[in-house]
Write a structure and sequence with these properties.
With about 140 residues, the protein is mainly alpha-helical. It is built from 4 helices and no strands. It has one domain. The protein binds zinc ion (ZN).
Length: about 140
């Protein structure tokens, strides 16, 4: 019997928060951007096939770039050079600062897709349940 799975949104949030997409307990990164091969808690292999999450990484980068583009359209700096410098600093901070979060999102999205197609490693312990459910007696 397969372990119960958490909803996709929760799985993606775990990835964005740099936690294991399956158990939510183990960290994804050993250092700032050095990925563990497997979850220290549930032994999930984070990248079973190299390159599977590049597309999701691209989507995360495009999302942040889109936010910057909207900012460019909405803001009108008093001086063009000041605007360019502010945009450059904002781009470096936004793209560089969110790199581990976007990588975590990509790994979690890849996990959701693999789980959907029954390709994910489900041999680890079942996912923790947030709140215990109590079954009521139908009487
Ligand atoms: Zn885990």
């Amino acid at each position: 019997m397969k372990p119960p799975h958490s909803p996709a949104i929760r799985t993606l949030l775990r990835g964005i928060c740099k936690r294991c997409p399956r158990c939510g307990q183990g960290p994804l990164f050993r250092k700032w951007y050095t990925l563990f091969d497997r979850c220290p808690e549930c032994d999930l292999e984070y990248q079973p096939r190299d390159g599977d999450n590049w597309g999701f990484m691209y989507l995360g980068t495009a999302f942040v770039t889109g936010i910057l583009a909207v900012g460019i359209l909405l803001l009108t700096p008093p001086n063009l050079w000041i605007g360019r410098v502010v945009l450059l600093v904002a781009a470096v901070v936004a793209l560089g600062g969110t790199l581990p979060n976007r990588k975590g999102f990509a790994i979690a999205f890849d996990y959701v897709i693999r789980r959907h197609w029954d390709d994910a490693d489900t041999s680890g312990p079942p996912e923790p349940v947030d709140a215990p459910t109590q079954e009521r007696d139908p009487q």
